[in-house]
């Protein structure tokens, strides 16, 4: 069973270890010094930044991280996405990783994403949809989104997290159940 808890400063050494894993580092491309982890994740932990960071736990064991933000809180990011696809009012975005090497390749990515989508509808009653851009070369990530029920809605160019990647991205979306965009017809 996947459960969630907010990331806290005592979790930074664990997060640092995850960010240092080659498979994570390839796509997240973060500095991993203790100072850099505190700089990049501390503001959200302290509530100084409107994004939210959650640890995913499998039977109580932390195994992954999901970040969530309301796109309206990040106007530049919203504008970048809106240049590629329609972004409904109330849209959110997520980013995610599985940090424990022994749990990669076991189907946890789609399960984690699906569970977090459900939590998002509960946590954000005004949330209309979740839009997730993924570097086109990161097949494992966009396949996890599709297995979790998100659909590819667009392709376009965005600045990649890792400078070795080109700008090609796929955008995936899921709408709140029962919303007009989710209804057939």
Automatic annotation (TrEMBL):
Keywords: Acyltransferase, Transferase. Coiled coil: none annotated. Pfam families: Acetyltransf_8. This is GNAT family N-acetyltransferase. GO terms for molecular function: acyltransferase activity. Its EC number is 2.3.1.-. InterPro entries: Acyl_CoA_acyltransferase. It comes from the Bacteria. It is an enzyme of class 2 (transferase). The keyword Acyltransferase applies.
